[in-house]
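Check these lines:
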Amino acid sequence: MPAAAVAPGTTIGSVMRDAPLPQQEARILLGHVAQISRVQLITQSERALSAAEAQQLASLFARRLAGEPIAYLVGEREFFGLAFEVNPAVLIPRPDTELLVELALQHLPPQGRVLDMGTGSGAIAIALAHTRPDARVTALDASAAALAVAQANASKHQAGIEFLHSDWFAALGDRQFDLIVSNPPYIVAGDRHLSEGDLRFEPIDALTDHADGLSDLRTISSHAARHLADDGWLLMEHGYDQAAAARALLLADHFREVQSWRDLANIARVSGGKKSRA
């Protein structure tokens, strides 16, 4: 099969054998185009692709060969057991961030009020609302395009979430929460990873603060206490080498029980602390 060409009438088995991509990626794209499951790709290996299917698949192969993320090509990514619609307006949810959800569930009291800052696709907020329907979940983002994706995902999963268009705390007034969580931009400006792999296609403002990687973490830490109830927790995801810096920010802002938690790769991925009583 030259380059990304797929001829009409080509069988599913032939496409899988000759695809110019790794088998797992080819399987995902072929299943998406043919609208069949992984098992059906095997049981229907002699099925011939229509002209429209062949054309769509060739286009997706070419775009993937050019580096576009699989999640954007199929418009979906799984997170915390739920399927989320994604497009280039939002970051692709990653397994690392499931740690933030797990910690939030541990620290969220019954009927608790939780705020997800910089919600993007809504993955964190929706995972919390889906797992804890008793919680009162608010999610905000500075991007109207991201909020549209998040709202669509919330509707898809029937999650009752209040969405706010806000640049961090700007639209909150004096509102308070029992828990604040955030996965903010934390990649340092100019980091080589921004020009590699999937990150090349993701929204740059959701990846980097265009500074030292800590400015948004600093903003969240310094203003969160005003919006937390007594003993409320702030939990922030950060870069693989930022745990010590994140803890220093929290301590400087008078949080207590400050600590970091490690993800499945044994990387300190989330840091947080409890609001000090007045």
